[in-house]
Amino acid sequence: TGVHDLSPIAQLFMLETVRIHNTGVSDLEPLRNLTSLRWLRASETYASSIEPLSALTALEELSIDRSPITDISPVSALVNVTYLSIYEMADCKPDCGSGSSAFASANKLNSLLAIGEMDKLRTLYAQDNNISNISVLTATKSSGDRVHQVLDHLRLDHNQLISAAPLVGLTGLRTLGMGGNPIGTLSDILTHTMIEELYLDDTSIGTTEGIDALQFLENLDLSQNPELSGQLHDLHNLAYLEWLNLDNVGLTEVPDVSGMTSLRYLSMQNNPSLTSLTSGVQYESGGGVVPVDSPL
Coil, helix or strand for 211? Predict the structure, then answer.
């Protein structure tokens, strides 16, 4: 949009919500003294520094996605933040205009150390970065409790992770996204028995054995894991599952879905060896998508 300068709002000290998503703003300094701010959406801007935000300790929700920011250390002062969205942090191309097509993929975020003391954080979206170390999520307080014990929505899809082991103690997780990270195994995830949404596309997992331990699952993405070779174990016990993506998992036949009494959507695209469908499953011609009571 045509918004580039925030100085006209610098004296609006009662402001609680500011949305400057997809603007030409490059300087967040005018926000420094707006200490009543509780919600700030500053995604897809040209701001390269969030240092002025460090004084906004009343902030509860912050989105700075797809902005040319590689240092998020100022968020460490924002101890009341419960929602933090920092996915696909990237530099803007020199000749680009604002908008989603304006941002390059270079210089993405590579560290989460800044969130180490944010013990009220409940939602963290950090997809599409270059994060390879999530040991910060194992941090403990002097009491021995995890700092991030209340974290319940975590998306780390498409980073550089090779293990989900640091997540083992986060027992309250309801949403977990690890897609695009070659973690190779479900073993460290099966301890998260309260999970309702799980995204494991393209994670090089070779078996789903034991997945029925996640009895509250509602959404499950196993797509782009040809290593499964169609060997899908223990899925039939997921009685609350509503959405299931099995694209490109080496299926030769429709898996047993008899116990999935809540299933509304099932996708099985790009399984060339799948040549027949069991009764009770509706086939949508031309796509390989098998929706069960789906709006598609």
Answer: helix
Q: Two tokens at 252?
A: 């030769």
d(CA 101, CA 88): 12
Residue 54 phi/psi, 5-degree rounding, is: -65, -20
List pLDDT tens digits, range 98-122: 444 455 544 588 999 999 989 999 9
Q: Which residues of 16-26 are buried (b: 16+ CB within 10 A; e: fewer)?
A: eebebbbbebb
Cβ pair 194, 218 in contact under 8 A: no
Give whole-number Cα distances, 28 to 5, 7, 47, in Å. Answer: 9, 9, 7
In this structure, are residues 141 and 157 in contact, taking their beta carbons and an 8 Å threshold? no
The whole model's pTM is what?
Answer: 0.88
d(CA 30, CA 19): 14
pLDDT of residue 90: 66
Question: Cα 53 to chain center, whole Å?
Answer: 23
CB atoms within 10 A of CB 105: 11
Name residue 128's amino acid.
Answer: D
CA-CA-CA-CA torsion for 11, 1, 17, 76, nearest 10 degrees? -90
Q: Which of 64, 60, 51 is nearest to 83 (CA)?
A: 60
- Distance, in Å, from the CA atom of 39 to the CA atom of 18, rounded to the nearest integer, reads 6
Token pair listed for 128: 């599409």
Counted residue by residue, the chain has a size of 296
Residue-wise pLDDT for 205-236, tens only, equals 999 999 999 999 999 999 999 999 988 999 99
Tokens of 170: 């986060």
Contact 154, 177 (CB under 8 A): yes
Residue 102 CA to residue 91 CA, distance in Å, equals: 9
User: In angstroms, what CA-CA distances link 105 with 86, 128, 250?
Assistant: 14, 9, 31
Give the model's pLDDT for residue 212: 94
d(CA 81, CA 39): 9
